[in-house]
Write a structure and sequence with these properties.
This protein is an alpha/beta fold and 392 residues long. 34% of the residues lie in helices and 14% in strands. A seven-stranded mixed β-sheet has the order 6-5-4-1-2-3-12, sandwiched between helices. It has a three-stranded antiparallel β-sheet with strand order 7-8-9, covered by helices on one side. A two-stranded antiparallel sheet has the order 10-11.
């Protein structure tokens, strides 16, 4: 055996123990990011539920606790004492009412990172109100800038507040807190509001207003669909091309590929000519299929790319060469974790998602509960276990 063979380095978050209180989409993605990069994530599910809506449970284990019993609360406190991170998804006040607010838990484990991921944050008029991504984006100010001028504002699915302003921002807060803890030895509370996360992502829009980039009505500016050189066009086969040719040298390449003579056209930055120029480009793009346009523009700096569908995104040459997508054991395709770390890249689990309560016994034993204690907790309905029968 070669004793000089080096073991590969552990993943970036190896050894970090995370408790994720089950909730809707933003908290599960936050937990999945941490798990993908090596943290040990335990999802704390509700007692006696059988179905989980968590589609982002990759690499997690599940325990089912009854937080309506003092014993269930006691278990969670014990788990918190031996964990690094707790992520909770509730409106302000819910954790406090259960007796597991940060002031209680951080007293018992001053090193814990207590991450509170909510829509409106832990204070303010709406802190106790229900809401979803659309509501949070509306309060962030960003929604007013999205869409076409004479139409209602449009929103990019539930990506902006839930996942970008929520999951990713909270994960960054957790990693920053873990980093700071290496110096101070102390945990802290993270108040991660999806409204503020979304607004912060929009910093460029706020900070670039003085450049005049957004001085025209919604949908008529250079970067929000107003410009003929920064928008999408339908092709002969009903697919689309994305055009982002802002700089003059890129715009020149765009016109060359479209077989248009610049001297026959108005100035690129003549706002009043944008609508007619857009129509002209649209007619041109309808002449060829998406594939034909790719043949013309691939390898140029025209900033023209195909709008890929979920069906063909992983087989596109660029994504394929980088391995940007991967399949799990069940053949489900998903994006590879980003960003790519050179020494300690994420290694997402490819096995199936956990059943609710599948790891209750295993986790409690790991955290120091005896077999008798576990059996007593089962009897008093503080925990439930789901032992999947072998599928053989």
């Amino acid at each position: 055996m070669d004793h000089h063979a080096r073991t590969p380095p552990a993943m970036a978050l190896a050894g970090v123990r995370v408790l994720e209180l089950a909730g809707l989409a933003p908290v599960p993605l936050c937990g999945m990011i941490l798990a993908d990069f090596g943290a040990k994530v335990i999802r704390v599910d509700k007692y006696n539920t059988t179905f989980s809506s968590d589609t982002m449970a990759r690499g997690k284990r599940s325990i089912a606790l009854n937080l309506k019993t003092p014993e269930g609360i006691g278990i969670l406190k014990t788990l918190c004492k031996q964990s690094d991170v707790l992520i909770e998804p509730f409106r302000h006040g819910v954790m406090e009412s259960l007796g597991i607010g940060p002031e209680v838990i951080l007293k018992e484990n001053p090193q814990l990172i207590y991450a509170r991921l909510s829509g409106f944050g832990q204070s303010g008029k709406y802190a106790k109100s229900a809401g979803h991504d659309l509501n949070f984006v509306s309060i962030s100010g960003l929604l007013s800038r999205l869409g076409k001028q004479h139409e209602n504002p449009t929103f990019p699915m539930n990506l902006l507040a839930d996942f970008a302003g929520g999951s990713y921002t909270c994960a960054l807060g957790i990693v920053m807190s873990l980093f700071e803890r290496t110096r101070s030895g102390r945990g802290q509370v993270i108040d991660s509001s999806m409204v503020e996360g979304a607004a912060y992502l929009g910093s460029f829009v706020w900070k670039s207003q003085k450049l005049g980039l957004w001085s025209r009505p919604r949908g008529e500016n250079m970067l929000d669909g107003g410009a003929p050189f920064y928008t999408t066009y339908v092709t002969a086969d009903g697919k689309y091309m994305a055009v982002g040719a802002i700089e003059p040298q890129f715009y020149k390449e765009l016109l060359k590929g479209l077989d248009l003579d610049p001297s026959d056209l108005p100035n690129q930055m003549s706002f009043s000519d944008w609508p007619s120029l857009k129509k002209q480009f649209a007619v041109k793009f309808l002449e060829k299929t998406q594939e034909q346009w790719c043949q013309i523009y691939d390898g140029t700096d025209a900033c023209v790319t195909p709008v890929l569908s979920f069906d063909n995104v992983e087989i596109h040459q660029h994504n394929k060469e980088r391995g940007s997508f991967f399949s799990n054991d069940e053949g489900e395709v998903s994006p590879r974790p980003a960003p790519l770390l050179s020494r300690t890249p994420a290694e997402p689990s490819s096995s199936r998602d956990p059943f609710i309560g599948e790891h209750t016994n295993e986790v409690l034993a790991e955290y120091g509960f005896s077999a008798k204690e576990i059996s007593d907790l089962k009897s008093c309905r503080a925990i439930s276990c789901h032992n999947p029968k072998s599928q053989l």
